[in-house]
Specification:
about 50% helix; disordered C terminus; about 190 residues; mainly alpha; about 10% strand; disordered N terminus; three-stranded antiparallel β-sheet; 5 strands
Length: about 190
């Protein structure tokens, strides 16, 4: 019997024979996330369409860490939605008309900040866009809070701003992990 045909017997109560050949490795739980390509030794991730090489089913270098990282961050972002929504609402209010943007721009000038041409808005499917929006909002935190008070709209409170600062530090670490730990990846 060759190595590729080795068989392991389970206890009699199981009543089955498990194969440990290369063929069975391709059917492990990991393979539910991959589609085998017609090219010998190639597979494609069903989540991010990245192609990977494997050697007869022995190794599978999963560069799909970016996908896993993305899922972790997306899940974390769900927990802070209540803090992000007031920031998003104020930014939407400001950017919805040029006259509102002009009114807003008087505030940063008083605080020795640059006037804004507009703000980045987040995209629900791309967590790094939320990070960009929040980072920019933190830079203009005092101006955004003052504008929300002047316009009598619900802006973020101090506790929400503190949560956003902590989240931005966490997201920065995730961006570094995505770029340097996985390779240059756009999430």
């Amino acid at each position: 019997m060759s190595n590729s045909e080795s068989v392991a017997l389970l206890p009699e109560s199981a009543g089955e024979v498990a194969q440990t050949s290369n063929r069975s490795r391709k059917r492990s739980a990991v393979w539910q996330y991959f589609e085998e390509l017609p090219d010998e030794g190639k597979a494609k991730c069903i989540h991010c369409d990245s192609k990977f090489a494997y050697h007869k089913g022995d190794d599978l270098h999963v560069r799909c860490t970016a996908h896993i990282l993305n899922l972790v961050v997306q899940d974390g972002m769900e927990t802070i939605r209540s803090a992000v929504e007031p920031v998003r609402d104020v930014i939407k209010h400001i950017t919805s008309s040029s006259s509102r943007l002009q009114i807003f721009n008087t505030i940063p000038q008083q605080l020795n900040l640059k006037p804004k041409r507009g703000f980045n808005l987040d995209v629900s499917t791309r967590w790094n866009f939320m990070y960009d929006m929040l980072e920019e909002a933190l830079e203009y935190k005092d101006a955004l809070t003052h504008y929300a008070n002047l316009q009598n709209i619900q802006g973020p409170n101090l506790e929400q701003w503190n949560l956003i600062e902590r989240v931005c530090r966490f997201c920065w670490l995730m961006i570094i992990a995505a770029h340097f730990g996985v390779g240059l990846v756009i999430l």
